[in-house]
Amino acid sequence: MSYNPVKKRLLILFLLLIVFAVLALFSGQIKSFFYNKSLNLQFMFWQSGRAQKTDEAVAKLVEENQKLLSQLTDLETTKKENEFFRQALGLGLEKEFDLILAQATAKNTFTFKGITFEDSILINKGKNDGIRKDFPVILSDKILVGKVAEVYDSFSRVVLISNKDSMIDVEIQDTGLFALAKGEGNLKIVLDLFPKDKELNEGTLAYTSALGGIYPSGLVLGQIRNIKKIDNEAFIRADIEPAFDLAQLDRVFVIKTAKIVND
Amino acid sequence: MLKFLFLGIFFYLLYFLQMSFLPFLNVFQFNFVVLLVLFINIFEDPKSNTGLYCAFFVGILSDIFSPYFFGLTTLILFSTAILIKFILWKYVRIP
To answer: Are B23 and A157 an interchain contact pair (Cβ–Cβ within 8 Å)?
Structure first.
């Protein structure tokens, strides 16, 4: 039998295609297997990265701390009032939602030559812990991080609110008006569909509204920044600065069942 | 075979470093591992296959930890590596 290099290459290509087709069929199990085997390694790197970041942050925090001390007196008063109202109204987070505590272990957000890849993180809880697709993910102080996009046996992928596919109905603080928050990737969110004839101030908070159906109302997205009023556009555009710091992201809560009460 | 195994373990560790450690450093806001694969393919001997193995391993790892279709990243990286090698072999002559 004569040796034909072209035939050999075609055969290798064909075999590779079959292998990838099989891998695609069992991708869920394969991903679960690799994730379980590498969980400890990922966790070790993640903790090391956080510790390194913390050292840098300490110097900055010392400076900020001095400024914040002057505001402490006012905040103490506000805190007492706040605690009083929380007790009175029963607004404890654990009473409002069924929560699952999870640990972030990896994140995928990077830009290469102007192309921004998806904003997402991996958390160490999955199907076995009761997590399902589209469950909202928050921080302890009701700050929205994103929602669960993919669920595997013991881990899940959470797409951040800044992900390009993310669209959230938001309510603007003090105005009672609704708008749309669109993710732009690379931790950027823009505010759209806010009426041009209404007043919008920098620093105003954007909350989730229950209109979208996925997120419960009242979760903080971030503060309004860079307000742009363009003459030939019917709506105001602005940036929303996310309320969470991805570099400091560690433990998150997944809302299992949102008990939304519409008054 | 030993080289194959070594490359696999090396890129396995490097990929986790990229995913879980490097995002905390402000200087590494790009995919360092993919860039490394491209560099290996550009600077190694065009007749060597090491760059192709690297592209394959990194592609597989990216596919495992990405939400996209299994094989997509492997295909893109592997094709890019072949293209780089072809261009270097066909059109680049270093005196």
So the answer is: no
